[in-house]
């Protein structure tokens, strides 16, 4: 693996991808999310930004003139500025990929080819380079040239159909609240990059692979058994609201304080304990509800009984009763609940991180994976840098030329 050169470079520590060098040509969400995961795992990520910076630096709230979200989105990465349309910019990209293991890009299909940086050109500079291409619809097919954002991935991938409220036809199905299709595509791209790098490791003659990940396909991959079910029977799964049609009771119930409680009581022993806990042991002994099939057939009646009980207590009290009976349950957390929860804090899922650029302490989410010998806090080596903060290091020390002015 290419590794990092220079005594002044940020250090990677004992993380599993330390020594893997990745060039990011991403912007907005999907590509940069993939490289953030790789960077959290220890990869050296060199983020290429236009001189004005990644457009997402202009999104969301700001502190001290800097975007708050980008503190996370660009963490553990180096930032350099290049004009990809200029001859100098393209030449420097080719020098960089010659010293890299992988490149991640999420431009519209054909853009890199149009500016003279398509896979054939990149592989001339480095035949072992792994190239991950993230786009709306993929690098081929009749829709490849159509524009797409995350909401389009949700819509065409089948997810937005399922988020509708059953029986409600005069309001659009809501999005989940975050850019889920961008994040999914980014996760798949990160996984594929890691796999492709592993696949050529130890084989000097191996050629780097080209990876094709699309937002629509990333969402579509989550549709469980819906495709074979449709192929066999023509059945089209419809929105189920907060319930799960294949398991009961699993739903979300309104409590006395107006808050919601999610309860999963869908195994036979758990259901009996749940009935006892809500003061209705007769329901647990009812032969109609003895197994999951029977409970699914009578889901409305069971949910109504549970809902009657939850509406008598505040959500936290109802949660405490059910937890004492070993029933899976949780209040619906907002970000305040997450930030203040003792479990999140104890596991450093929520951590305090100094951001020098903003001159303050921020709350950061931990990386979604743990490794023995490395604390979650140690995986956040630095917060997002300023635009072009590493020009001197990358162009001067790594490429051995005068830094970009």
Automatic annotation (TrEMBL):
Pfam family, one: CoA_transf_3
Keyword terms of this UniProt record: Transferase
InterPro entries on file: CoA-transferase_III (IPR050509), CoA-Trfase_fam_III (IPR003673), CoA-Trfase_III_dom3_sf (IPR044855), CoA-Trfase_III_dom_1_sf (IPR023606)
Source domain of life: Bacteria
MF term (GO), any: transferase activity
Ranges in coiled-coil conformation: none
PANTHER family named among the record's database cross-references: L-CARNITINE COA-TRANSFERASE, SUCCINYL-COA--D-CITRAMALATE COA-TRANSFERASE
Name of the protein in its database record: CoA transferase
Species of provenance: Falsiroseomonas frigidaquae
């Amino acid at each position: 693996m290419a590794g990092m050169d220079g005594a002044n470079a940020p250090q990677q520590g004992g993380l599993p991808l330390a020594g893997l060098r990745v060039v990011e040509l991403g912007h907005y969400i999907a590509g940069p999310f993939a490289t953030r995961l790789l960077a959290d795992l220890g990869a050296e990520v060199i983020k290429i930004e236009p001189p004005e910076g990644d457009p997402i630096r202009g999104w969301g709230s700001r502190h001290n003139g800097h975007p708050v979200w980008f503190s996370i989105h660009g963490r553990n990465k180096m930032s350099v500025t290049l004009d990809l349309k200029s001859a100098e910019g393209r030449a420097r990209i080719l020098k960089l990929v010659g010293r890299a293991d992988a490149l991640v890009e999420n431009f519209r299909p054909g853009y890199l080819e149009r500016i003279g940086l398509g896979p054939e050109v990149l592989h001339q500079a480095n035949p072992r380079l792994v190239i991950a291409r993230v786009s709306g619809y993929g690098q081929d097919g009749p829709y490849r040239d159509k524009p797409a954002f995350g909401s389009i991935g949700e819509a065409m991938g089948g997810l937005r159909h399922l988020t509708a409220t059953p029986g409600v036809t005069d309001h659009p199905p809501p999005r989940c609240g975050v850019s889920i299709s961008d994040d999914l595509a980014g996760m798949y791209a990160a996984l594929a990059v890691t796999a492709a790098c592993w696949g050529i490791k130890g084989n000097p003659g191996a050629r780097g692979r080209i990876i094709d990940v699309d937002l629509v396909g990333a969402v579509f991959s989550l549709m469980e058994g819906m495709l074979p079910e449709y192929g066999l029977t023509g059945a089209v799964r419809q929105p189920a609201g907060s319930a799960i049609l294949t398991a009961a009771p699993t739903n979300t119930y309104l409590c006395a304080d107006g808050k919601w409680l999610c309860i999963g009581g869908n195994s036979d022993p758990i259901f009996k304990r749940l009935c006892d806990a809500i003061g209705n042991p007769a329901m647990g002994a009812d032969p109609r509800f003895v197994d999951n099939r029977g409970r699914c057939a009578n889901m409305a009646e069971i949910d109504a009984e549970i809902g009657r009980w939850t509406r008598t207590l505040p959500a936290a009290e109802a949660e405490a009763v059910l937890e004492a009976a070993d029933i899976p349950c949780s209040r619906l957390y907002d970000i305040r609940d997450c930030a203040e929860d003792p479990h999140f804090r104890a596991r450093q899922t929520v951590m305090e991180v100094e951001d020098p650029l903003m001159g303050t302490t921020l709350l950061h989410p931990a990386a979604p994976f743990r490794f023995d010998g490395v604390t979650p806090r140690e995986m956040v080596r630095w917060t997002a840098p300023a635009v072009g903060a590493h020009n001197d290091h990358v162009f001067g020390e790594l490429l051995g030329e005068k830094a970009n002015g």
